[in-house]
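This part of the workshop introduces the protein records we will be handling. To make this concrete, we reproduce a full record directly below:
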Amino acid sequence: MSESLSDKAAQALEWPRLLEFLAERARSSAGAARCRNLALAHTLSDATARQRETAEMRQLASADDPFPSAVFPDIREHVLRASKGGILDSAELRDCAQVMAAMDAVVRYMAPRRLEAPALWSVIEPLHRMAGLTEVMRAVETAIQPDGSINEAATPELRRLTHRAQELKQEMRQRLEHLIHSRRYEDVLQEGYFAEREGRYVLPVKAEMRGKMPGIVHDISASGATVFLEPRELVELNNSIKVADLEVEREIRRILRELTLALAAKSEALLEGLAILTEVDCIHAKALLAQDLKAEPVPLNERGRVVLKQARHPLLVLLRPDVVANDIVFDEGVSVLIISGPNTGGKTVTLKIVGLFALMVRAGLHVPCAPESDMALFTDLYADIGEAQDLSRDLSSFSAHMTQMVRLLADARMRGAAPPGAPRALVLLDEPVTSTDPREGAALAEALLRRLAALNMKVVATTHYGALKELAQTTAGFANASVEFDVSRLAPTYRLFMGIPGGSSALDIAARLGMDDDLLRDARARLGQDDRRLDAVIADLQDKQREVANEVDAARRARMEAERAARDAEALRARLEEQEREARTGIKKKLSEQFQRARSEVQATVDAFKRDQRLSKAKEAKQRLLELEQHATRELAPVQETVPVDQLHAGETVEITSLGMTGTLLEAPRGKKRVRVRVGEGEVMATVANLVGIPGGSREELPRSASPSPPRRVMMAAEAEGQTVVDVRGQVADEAVDHVVAALDRAALSGAPFLRIIHGHGTGRLKTVLREYLRDSPYVEAFRPGDRAEGGDGVTIATLR
């Protein structure tokens, strides 16, 4: 397709207007310019890659850590001037540093996400390979402040010169203040301040009194009443200040020259990096536009398959939210789609949707339709839409349209027919061959459409010609579609019906608008019988299609309601489960507090009986307490089916409830108080009362001898659950004693021979309090500090009775 034809098609489809909306979402002037001149892909792989870039950017832009802001200035002129030997000022160098910083930020953000967004990384990856730009960026940032001013610490020489100039100016201000407050010049000065003229410090002197103060006049006020005079006694100091300022300026120029030369040496890389940043900004704008359009990436094909589900015109979506969505379907088997129906019914809107979608997918823009859609890739696009009259060339509408048709066919002949099943060109014709005799126009339009189909072009045309509707209904490769018009409201519904033609409804609309009944009857009588019968058939088909469409809409709404109800039910289930967990946690906390109080009561009983050595009675109470706690734990555990202990056999899977661990039973528990259970690579001695059989677990075949292998360690259950060790480091004395008492409870009841108490060194206060308690505890037979391997004096080993 020639460039002029493609340009006219884009203009007819309002493509530049859509690109302007895209440019508004760019964050840099260069990115906005790139959006306005968006390049189009010419291959399926290129178009698919651009779609992926937009999808990946859209995902990153909506993440918790979004893609970094791509705000950067356009520095192309700066870089080109530097490459030609020009010296950049500090503000221009700062702009270059901002671009390099943006490049660095993008690379640092994307490098760890390269696998997450491979298509986007392929665009950005060249920035990762640009050597030397980081050094230039740091040099500029060191020398130049964010506001564009020179940092006085840029070089040691600049710091020295700047400080020298400041010292001289401070001396000048002191001497000027002295003159201002001197009685000698009290009547000479106009005001009590000093000023600066032409880089020299001066005093405001009354014009008639200037002879009273020797010096040089640098300026006169507008009224002439004041002269700004440099006192002779300050001339030499002013000269020194001037020299110091010139030296500072010379050093600044030297710094700017060096930075510019460093930047010029990297000009090619910097321009390439700027181009990549511009492309990234454009991709980011595409992602934002896709979000605003509620658009989707759709699969692309080269077979001419166009299946657009719930498609909406993108420009209408951006202007108002209530846009009617339609299914536009004409797959590989259809070359020409004829859209008919009344004026203002949406035929041209449908035409433009297909054309804009064809451009959008090539540009990497997501299209506003359902994700289950499919779009063909058309590398050529032609559109004849709207009024084509050209008064400047003395062409009527018919002549202008025919001229465009001739150009289209000539261009198609030059290119040759596309391979079967792979149409390259999309042709959009709005009312082809009108403004002439209807019979001749219809015949010429039919011949034109047949020729375009023979050239394997994909054609969408709107029409009022009955002959073209009949052609689409009876010819292979042609299909009808129609737009709906509500005659009762005199308003289009913008609903598209695939597969059936539409009537113009001209007489019905005229009647609703108040046209004379006799005139309308006369008009209907003049219609041929075949025309009236065709209109009746079309009306009947549209009524049936409307019913089907309404049922489909109702089914879609019902499905959405069902899906929403399912989501609500799932959310409710999750909330109930969370509430149940919270309730269980609350109950456990309450029971824990109750058991803690019970332990305190039992401990009080032990203390009361310890003088009488009635320890057995206290142990019975503690055993009962432990049984109550285990019972409550089982009650609070999730309800599940279990296997009674007396039905368990060696090799079956069991849970040790006191440990919360699962293992394999190594011996039958019948008639025993403790049994061996293999947990992982080790074994534990578990109390039978703490065992629960797990149904459905695989039964493991054990060796004939159930005794453990020599390297495997057999542990008591109490040891496995940490009951021979208690760590109270960092606790206050009372809290630590409570934890040790509870540990002694567990150790004594489980039959452990000792308890290892880790209290650390610290100030020694915690160790002293614990050992004083152990000295009187009825559980403890003796205690000692740990040896070196056990932790030394930071540990106490209590041997239990």
User: Anything to note?
Assistant: Residues 388-395, 705-721 have pLDDT under 50 and may be disordered. The longest strand covers residues 478-486. The radius of gyration is 45 Å. DSSP finds 23 helices and 24 strands in the chain.
